[in-house]
Specification:
6 strands, four-stranded antiparallel β-sheet, alpha+beta, 149 residues, 6 helices, two-stranded antiparallel ribbon
């Protein structure tokens, strides 16, 4: 299996994609476009709205896939950072990316129920921004995994 992991890392490195989250970083919310191809200008506007919202969110670490949206393209993230190892049973590289954006948050200050509430609040706030665009959906990461397993 280590050989596959090396192949995965190489695959993501070649594409400039994040393969693993930092130790103090947790998935928060998943964003996906309702239809693709969407109008590039609409995707760019959504990316700009998310970037502006992000500036006022100190617990938010980063949004993987935002760079693509700011360029008017569909976001793309590593299947591994969204789903973890168990989803990567299919060894075909074309299954190793998802057309999603993933918001992550810092986890070093709170754990347990405090973290869960902070995560839910942050995801709900982001969902308002995303869904106001009319072209995308947003869901808390844990709920997204549950609904799409």
């Amino acid at each position: 299996m280590e050989e596959l992991r090396d192949a995965e890392r190489q695959f993501y490195r070649e594409r400039g994609m994040v393969y693993e989250l930092e130790a103090d970083e947790k998935p928060c919310a998943v964003i996906w476009l309702r239809n693709w191809p969407e109008d590039a200008a609409a995707v760019r506007r959504l990316g700009q709205a998310i970037a502006k919202w992000k500036e006022s969110q100190p617990r938010l670490r980063r949004i993987l896939g935002l760079t693509e949206m700011l360029q008017g393209a569909a976001p793309g993230v590593s299947t591994f950072v969204v789903w973890g190892r168990y989803y990567m049973k299919d060894h075909r590289p074309e299954t190793w990316t998802q057309n999603l954006a993933l918001a992550t948050m810092a986890s070093e200050t709170q754990e347990g129920e405090g973290f869960l509430k902070a995560n839910a609040d942050l995801a709900a706030s982001l969902r308002q921004v995303v869904e106001a665009s009319g072209i995308a959906n947003c869901q808390e990461h844990a709920r997204y995994l549950y609904d799409n397993r």
